[in-house]
Amino acid sequence: MGATKAFLERAAQQYIEVNHQDKMVSKEMDQSTAASESEELPKPVGMRRNKSKSTFLGLIDALVPVAEQACIELGGGASTEEIAEHAVKVNVWRTINFLINYSLIIREKVATGEVELQGGIYNMSSGAVEFLGKSLKQERLLNSDALVPPSMQSGLMPLTRQLS
User: Fold this and answer.
1) Which of 37, 72, 141, 144 has the fewest CB atoms within 10 Å, measured from its CB?
2) What InterPro entries does the entry give (predicted)?
3) How much is the pTM?
4) Angstrom distances, CA of residue 6 to CA of 67, 72, 84, 90, 119
């Protein structure tokens, strides 16, 4: 959990900085009446990266929405450490919900009671596992008919044309 927590802390800090930057840019735009329409706003930190990034950076970027959700759920007064700690739980729930929503096999096995998905967080320091239980969204997700995550749908178009 240590490495994941460090990534989530970084993502949470980035989210806070980007939101602060967006507010500052918005305030500057309100105050400036003579600004040129052709000027581009600065891009958020996450958007400045080179398009050809490593798999590792792709995995890190995938944690940004988790950190953002944790920030939103905790509100503006939370510390980076509190956000990172909460983001670990958010990540567990998102993973469980993703598995139920997009895996027909898992969905069927959970629905029949053959498999039970429960969240848990392993504490590397103490060796203890904090069990979180089942997802509150499980019953609704069991009715899903989704088979392919949205992030993979665009890649299927060429394949379906080839099979036709």
Assistant:
1) 37
2) Carbonic_anhydrase_sf (IPR036874)
3) 0.61
4) 11, 19, 8, 15, 20
